[in-house]
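Pipeline run #58 for the internal structure catalog. This entry was flagged by the ingest filter as a single-chain record with no existing model, so it goes straight to prediction. Upstream metadata was stripped on purpose; only the residue string is passed forward. Reviewer on rotation: M.T. Logging verbosity set to normal.
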Amino acid sequence: MLNSNLVIFAPFGQVDNEWLLFDEVSGVKFYKQDVPCTPENIPDQKGVLIKIVNSTDKAVNISWELNVWYDHVQHKANIRDGENIYTLNLKANQSVQGSCDMPNGALYIFKEFITFSNGAKMTKFEFNNIKLTEDIR
């Protein structure tokens, strides 16, 4: 099992729409993309999509702890034990990525609302304790 800690500082005022590699652990690559999202039934917002690529020839289980800062303060309110720990399984040479169609979950991180100018803004996020294990199913 491998562990990794990763700190990401999120610049504002820029939307690149390109996938940027921010970590790689044993052939599993982690990318981020800053995007505007306009899903139905919720206010327009900016977010960070996450893409994870398993470039190995083995299936893997991946887990990590997500920590997020808004206006330079770590968001801890209303987080139940383990609620910010995410797990997914990827087959050999498989990838998965977040989407604005459903802006929540492990592969989407909220940055700020577009329609509200006085709301909190994400200033940093971290993937801590990245763990990979071979999936032997």
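catalog note: Residues 62 and 132 are 5 Å apart (CA to CA).
catalog note: The mean pLDDT is 83.
status: ready for reviewer M.T.
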